[in-house]
């Protein structure tokens, strides 16, 4: 029984640490740094204003072209210093033909559809500017996004800048919207603290930038291109910084079913990334970056879902030994777990009946996130996750998402 208690408390601590404890530790470390005066931002050359390339890998984005190009042209940065490059490989809805009608837009197209990362590998051979900014075809960028990204590149130690992903918020959000929005707000805060401590651990594909000279071609079957590209930049001795003022906005998933598809792909890609970035687990080589990577990413994609599966039956054994109704520590924790999963189940029930009770969306979304890891692992092992994009419904509309 004592050994079960040790396993239980280690598992509970690991789960808590991965989702909340790391954030608390980050906050404490940041407070210490600020008190010691170590958080002074790098000013650099305030006149730094290099040419940049807005790079979009798109597949059948005809319905979004007008809005995307107009948004790109309206950004607060000298237009003569902004090149727009679209790679539309495989598109057969007229996307490349329509794009060629716009002034200042370079279009690369071939009939074969080989996936987003193949398009990115091919397109990067045509980038001539010192900074390349990646964005999705169905997202709007904040007006000062380029300016804010470039500002962080004044520091020569910075090799990558991640923008913020924002979710359209609606008064009657479904579980996917409420859960996804809350998750990204929390992630945004963690990224700000990560950046202040040393480096963000991965960039958001909706909007991120790298120094072109640091680009490394990525394996064509890569699932999380943004994650792999940004961390391989960091592994070259540079940092990934984060700017919430540079943001991309998109609608939330239309429902939890659609969000689960997206999360399963991310989980499969996360496991693939952990395997391919194995050297980054070496704390003695990468120091603080490894600590942040393991704490913020690796635990959530590997150990924590398994521990969640293990901790409930162990807790039940310990609570029964203590007395289920005795209200001891193990009994209280057991009933708390039961209540949490009951709330997730009720959230699922209400979601399918179009009823809105946001208090239940958090446990439901948390459950979906961890379920997706098991499903993603199965896809990764079977090699069943395609690198191509499929239709996914987001926020009442149909957009391109890799699922």
Helix-strand blueprint:
Elements: H1 2-36, E1 52-57, H2 65-73, E2 82-87, H3 95-99, E3 105-108, H4 116-123, E4 131-135, E5 140-141, H5 145-152, E6 158-167, H6 175-197, E7 207-211, H7 225-234, E8 239-250, H8 256-276, H9 283-286, H10 288-301, H11 303-322, H12 329-351, H13 361-382, E9 390-394, E10 397-401
Parallel strand pairs: 1-2, 1-4, 2-3, 6-8
Antiparallel strand pairs: 4-7, 5-8, 6-7, 9-10
Helix pairs in contact: 1-6, 1-10, 1-11, 6-8, 6-13, 8-13, 11-12, 12-13
Quick description:
With 403 residues, the protein is α/β, with parallel strands linked by helices.
Largest sheet: 8 strands, mixed
Any idea how many domains? 1
Q: Specify the CATH class.
A: Alpha Beta
* Full CATH superfamily name: Spore Coat Polysaccharide Biosynthesis Protein SpsA, Chain A
Number of helical stretches of at least 4 residues: 13
Radius of gyration using CA atoms only: 22 Å
Number of DSSP-assigned strands: 10
Helix-strand pattern, N to C? HEHEHEHEEHEHEHEHHHHHHEE
Mean pLDDT: 87
Q: Strand order across the biggest sheet?
A: 3-2-1-4-7-6-8-5
CATH third-tier fold name: Spore Coat Polysaccharide Biosynthesis Protein SpsA, Chain A
Kindly, what is the distance between the CA atoms of the first and last residues, rounded to a whole number of angstroms? 44 Å
Helix share bin:
40-55%
Q: Which CATH architecture would you pick?
A: Alpha-Beta Complex
Which structural class is indicated by helix and strand composition?
alpha/beta
Shape: globular
**Weakly predicted, low-confidence segments:** 396-403
Quaternary structure classification: single chain
Which percent band covers the strand fraction?
A: 5-15%
């Amino acid at each position: 029984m004592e050994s079960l208690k040790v396993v239980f408390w280690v598992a509970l601590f690991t789960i808590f640490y991965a989702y909340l404890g790391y954030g608390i530790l980050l906050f404490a470390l940041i407070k210490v740094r600020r008190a010691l005066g170590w958080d002074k931002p790098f000013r650099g050359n305030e006149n730094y204003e290099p040419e940049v390339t807005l790079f979009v890998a798109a597949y059948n984005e005809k319905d979004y072209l007008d809005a995307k190009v107009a948004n790109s042209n309206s950004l607060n940065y000298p237009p003569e210093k902004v090149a727009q490059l679209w790679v539309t490989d495989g598109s057969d809805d007229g996307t490349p033909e329509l794009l060629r009608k716009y002034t200042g837009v370079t279009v690369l197209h071939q009939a074969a559809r080989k996936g987003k990362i193949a398009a990115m590998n091919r397109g990067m051979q045509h980038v001539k500017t010192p900074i390349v900014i990646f964005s999705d075809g169905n997202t709007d960028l904040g007006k000062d996004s380029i300016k804010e990204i470039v500002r962080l590149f004044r520091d020569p130690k910075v090799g990558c800048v991640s923008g913020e992903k924002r979710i359209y918020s609606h008064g009657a959000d479904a579980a996917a919207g409420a859960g996804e929005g809350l998750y990204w707000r929390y992630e945004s805060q963690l990224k700000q603290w990560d950046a202040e401590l040393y480096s963000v651990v991965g960039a958001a594909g909706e909007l991120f930038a790298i120094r072109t000279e640091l680009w490394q071609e990525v394996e064509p079957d890569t699932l999380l291109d943004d994650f792999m590209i940004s961390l391989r930049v960091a592994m070259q001795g540079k940092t990934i910084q984060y700017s919430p003022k540079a943001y991309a906005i998109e609608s939330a998933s239309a429902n939890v079913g659609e969000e689960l598809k997206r999360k399963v792909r991310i989980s499969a890609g996360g496991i693939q990334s952990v395997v391919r970035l194995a050297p980054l687990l070496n704390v003695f080589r990468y120091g603080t970056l490894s600590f942040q990577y393991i704490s913020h990413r690796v635990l959530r994609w590997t150990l924590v879902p398994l521990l969640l599966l293990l901790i409930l039956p162990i807790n039940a054994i310990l609570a029964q030994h203590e007395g289920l109704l005795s209200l001891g520590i193990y009994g209280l924790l057991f009933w708390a777990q039961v209540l949490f999963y009951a709330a997730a189940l009720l959230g699922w029930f209400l979601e399918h009946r179009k009823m809105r009770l946001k208090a239940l969306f958090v446990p439901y979304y948390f459950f979906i996130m961890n379920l997706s890891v098991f499903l993603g692992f199965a896809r990764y092992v079977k090699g069943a996750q395609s690198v191509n994009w499929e239709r996914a419904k987001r926020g009442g509309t149909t957009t391109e998402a890799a699922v």
